[in-house]
């Protein structure tokens, strides 16, 4: 995967910025051309992208996306969609070609509702919490071996219930949204404390000394537009004492990047445009969307065995 390796090698790691238990290592890259796509929020706001249930009856693991615009639309792994019959999160990063209708693999994050509240979904200003995204990514990658792109729905509901209990966030419909509402003030302060840098295209996130994950894009504009959603994703984990290290570890972001480049990578046809790259091994699990224009988005997490309570010391995660 030469293009992916070249993309990783083009990244420079900046100095960390810390906000309480969360530290953010900027990933910098020079990018000349403007993005060739629109983000989900921009396209929905412009009225060119429409996301609905697949039918009046609906289907929990799949939605319908219609792009009436003249540019592709990028929808990223873990983005939350609210409305219709129940709130969902996106299972994987998708580039929806212009003038097309495609199915969108999703997972429910609101177990107690199955009734219409709107005809179309709206993008929330958040992505699913990072530890949940890591688990979901593993489920989806495993399912792709048999041609599916589904997560383990019961496991996702269980993680939401356990986290909601720890954060004392109540919801009559068991919605993950309640946790973000409960901690809105703290999350907003985190976002307000960290501004995107020139040439920043992503970040490696660290929680209490333990690397929590990486999200990186092809262009600073995409990062700037998406950063608040991802800050809420990792920020919610940082506000949860059940996630992260003990605060005394010394993370090594460079080793984490190097481990991604050495992981075993498998390519699949993407949902929408491009190729879906899945990588695992060497203590890493992750995915990337590669198009004819190059890598558009990559996400990576320490594998489950690296973040178990045994406190593996790989990547400074102990």
What features would you describe in this structure?
With 318 residues, this protein is of the alpha+beta class. It has one domain. The chain has helices at 2-9, 40-46, 130-144, 153-167, 177-182, 184-193, 220-238, 253-262, and strands spanning 12-13, 17-19, 22-28, 38-39, 49-53, 62-67, 73-75, 79-83, 88-90, 94-96, 100-108, 121-127, 200-207, 210-217, 264-269, 275-281, 284-291, 294-302. Strands 1, 2, 3, 13, 14, 15, 16, 17 and 18 form a 9-stranded antiparallel sheet that branches. Helix 6 (184-193) packs across helix 7.
Question: Would you report the number of β strands?
Answer: 18
Q: Tell me, rounded to a whole number, the average pLDDT.
A: 93
How helix-rich are the residues, as a percent range? Answer: 25-40%
State the helix count.
Answer: 8
H and E string: HEEEEHEEEEEEEEHHHHEEHHEEEE
Percent of sequence in beta strands: 25-35%
Radius of gyration: 18 Å
Poorly predicted segments: 307-318
Number of domain modules: 1
The best one-word shape is globular
Distance between the termini: 30 Å
Largest sheet: 9 strands, antiparallel
**Helix/strand-derived class?**
alpha+beta
Label this structure with key terms.
28% helix; single chain; 9-stranded antiparallel β-sheet; alpha+beta; 318 residues
In short:
The chain is α+β, with helices and mostly antiparallel strands and 318 residues long.
Q: Topology, pairings included?
A:
Blueprint: H1 2-9, E1 12-13, E2 17-19, E3 22-28, E4 38-39, H2 40-46, E5 49-53, E6 62-67, E7 73-75, E8 79-83, E9 88-90, E10 94-96, E11 100-108, E12 121-127, H3 130-144, H4 153-167, H5 177-182, H6 184-193, E13 200-207, E14 210-217, H7 220-238, H8 253-262, E15 264-269, E16 275-281, E17 284-291, E18 294-302
Parallel strand pairs: 4-7
Antiparallel strand pairs: 1-3, 2-3, 3-13, 5-6, 6-11, 7-10, 8-9, 8-12, 9-11, 13-14, 14-18, 15-16, 16-17, 17-18
Helix pairs in contact: 6-7
